[in-house]
Amino acid sequence: MKRLRIAVPKGAIFEDALRALDSAGLPVEVVRENGRRLVYEAGGFEFIVSRPTDVPVFVEYGAADVGIVGKDVLEEGRPNVVELLDLGTGWCRMILAAPSARAEEVREAIGHAEVVHVATKFPNTARRYFEGMGRQAEIIALHGSIELAPLVGLAECIVDLTATGTTLRENDLAVLDEISTSTARLIANRGAYRLRNAEIAALVDAMQKEGLPLG
Amino acid sequence: MQRPTPTRKFATTPGTRDVLPPEAGRLLDVQARIRERFRLFGFGEVLTPALEYSEVIEEPRLRDASFKLFDPDNQMVMLRPEMTTPIARLVAQRLARSPSPRKLSYFLPVYRRASVGRGQSAELYQAGVEVVGSRSPQEDASTIALLVDVMTSLGLRAPEDFAVVLGHATFYRAYLEYASPEAAPAVMRALAAKDLVGVERLVADLPEGVAAGARDIPRLVGPAVNGEVLKKAARYASGADEALGALENLQEILRHLEAYGGLEAVILDLGLVGRHDYYTGALFEAYAAGLGFTVANGGRYDNLLSRFGMDLPATGFAIYLERLLSVLPEGDPTPLLVLVGGGLDGTRAAGALREMGVPTLHLAEDLAPEEAVRYARSVDAAWVCYPSENGLELAPARGDAPFEALGVEDVAGRVLGREVIRG
To answer: Which of B258, B293, B327 is the last residue of a domain?
Structure first.
């Protein structure tokens, strides 16, 4: 039987993801021990580590059977995968924010359906948010340092993730609205979920018994 | 060396491609073998136009995905994004008076705007069948059995290499409507998006008696042979008559599948409900080990024909041929011989070889042996051959074996791998 391949995201939820797998009894030590490999094999499992936004790509194509990824990434890309379990960890929220000094001005501009410039790493999420309210926005897609955009006049406001709000405070940004909240999810490839259901259901069970999601 | 900048407009458009030998040959061979199986089950093949009026296709998702253009009357037309609706239109328009069921098949490409970055093709070769005019679960079973038959006859084994995942569009919906009519639409939307976390969240507040069923039914997945999945489902659904009816429908389908000998290939998944509002009964998706996408999908769609003014139940499936091809074991290449030059002698030898059934590519130019071998490899030929004074000189295109003088019949025997006697 081929090993079950699990995609683990680098970055903010890497440790949470490993802990969740660890407490479900998976041999994740190999992943911690050697940070330079791309594929780790242990027991009946194979782990791959990738950028969070790439996890659903590996899973959708079946290059990984299951993966762990934030709900924010799923909302943005809407990959065709099965969402199996809320791990409850990696909590953060998707917010609309603007420089404190101009927050009211921006709020009014949006309220009057003026076209505002929005910098974000989540263009689809931002577009759907503004369309859903019947408001207009020009979405400017960036890959990092979103907070910089309103400071230098690239955009009036931003759509971004925040967990503690520290970055927002440091850059004197005020939250105008909360678009959604996000936690880490276990996802599965559609084919693997059916063809290897016994293994994947057992993994879901084992992960569910640990760290139960809140609400 | 500086490469010339390629002219973009001389490439194929995004999502489309040229299919070259030997892949095109394999694709057409697979198509031919599937056609044999479809005929064996009595299906008649149809061709429909690549262009349809845009009104023919109703589903927003497919309308969005389709290529649109305007005809000379300034009407919007679409390149067909799927085949089921065109066949429904065809039946309503052309076969309205013929007796049910109409059993039709097709082998045609469909066109969808490729979603960028998801690697999806804009032109997808499909093979499929539609059974129009019967409500019988036996027809659901026979279409699934045909799909299993096709996959098996192409050398795939169930359940190691592939499985047909069988679900039902109304079982869970009927259970929800019995358990909690208010929650049902939102839960069904979440499930159609395969968001089981969302389903759990939505049903968490339901009364205790029904919450467990609402939470667990979409996660009931397992092989059809052992009957566990349906037993559990029936326990949850006791009291919900419409839901139990849907289960009975599934059971009937499975009984017939067992009689067909196709039950081994079936995995039940009661969380498989299909796209919103399209399927009306049993539906299924075929998956192959090692491929993340569906190889085929289908199901019962009893409401589609009413759009065209006929109230006819129907079921069917479509196979994505390129995906199927990608999981098939690689077969032996057809034997091909490159016969080099030789003027009139060469032409006569080519004729004699072809008469004995040897696929022969005859080159007019007298190429040197190393060039001839290079050419042979480029066309996937297994053999290179020169006419000589008293017969032919034959060598394999791969490996270092030297040329060997042989008679025409011996050459034919070598190439075809069996003894050949000239008639």
So the answer is: B327
Q: How far apart are CA A163 and CA A148, in angstroms?
A: 18
End residue of a domain, out of B327, B357, B377: B327
pLDDT score of A163: 92
Give dist(CA A186, CA A49) in Å, integer: 15
Q: Which residues pair with B404 in a beta bridge?
A: B394
Furthest-apart CA atoms within chain A: distance in Å: 61
Q: What is the ipTM of this complex?
A: 0.91
More confident: B418 or B256: B256
User: What would the mean pLDDT of B353-362 be, rounded to a whole number?
Assistant: 96
Inside any domain, residue A214? no
B346 shares a domain with B321: no
Confirm whether B10 is domain-assigned: no
Same domain, B145 and B189: yes
Nearest-Cα residue of chain A relative to residue B201: A215
Q: What is the pLDDT of residues B274-326, one digit of tens each?
A: 887 789 999 999 999 989 999 999 999 999 999 999 999 999 999 999 999 99
Q: Does B294 sit within 8 Å of A60, measured CB to CB? A: no
Q: Which residue range is the domain that position B89 belongs to?
A: 23-327
Please name the member of A62, A81, A194 whose beta carbon is closest to the beta carbon of B165: A194
Give tens-digit pLDDT for B206-255: 988 889 999 999 999 999 999 999 999 999 999 899 999 999 999 999 99
Q: Which residue has the tokens 């890959």?
A: A143
Nearest-Cα distance to chain A for B340, in Å, is: 46
Q: CA B372, CA B367: separation in Å to the nearest integer?
A: 6
